[in-house]
Amino acid sequence: MTDLSDYVPWMLVLVGVPLSVVIGLVTRGPRSTGRIIGSVVLALGLCLALCFGAAVLHGECIERHYCESRGDGNLSYWFGPLLALPLYWFMILIPGQRNRSGAE
After folding, report:
1. Which of 5, 25, 50, 71 would bridge 81 by S-S if both were Cys, CB 3.0 to 4.6 A apart?
2. Which ranges of the chain does DSSP label H, i.e. alpha helix?
3. Which residues have CB under 8 Å from 61's CB, separation 6+?
């Protein structure tokens, strides 16, 4: 049996990067302290959604017999998106800064 358990959280981390870039482009980056705090909140929201998605996706993977269940070790699969939180925040800030500098 093929065990795809290690790939599930990384798939969602890779999905989160373009999503955070899109969020950065839509919000046009921080221009004030309030927007910087807002970008942190957006990155945290994206992170939590992807953590939930990783848990659901891994559960579905176990049900379809593509992944092995590791008991309490299954909880570790939502750490991938959680550890990528600084990356998501950075990716929200960078496109917004490019938009901001190009518009002025």
Report:
1. 50
2. 8-27, 33-63, 79-83, 85-103
3. 4, 5, 8, 67
Residue 68: phi and psi, rounded to 5, are -95, 145
Tell me which DSSP letter residue 31 carries.
S
pTM of the model: 0.80
Residue 88 near residue 15 (C-beta atoms within 8 A): no
Q: How many residues does the chain have?
A: 104
Alpha-carbon torsion, ordered 43, 45, 50, 53, to 10 deg? -170
DSSP 5: T
3-state SS, residue 75? helix
List the end-to-end C-alpha distance of the chain, in Å, as a whole number.
57
Residue 91, number of CB atoms within 10 A of its CB = 22
Tokens in use for 70? 């590791």
**5-23 per-position pLDDT tens digit:** 888 888 989 999 999 999 8
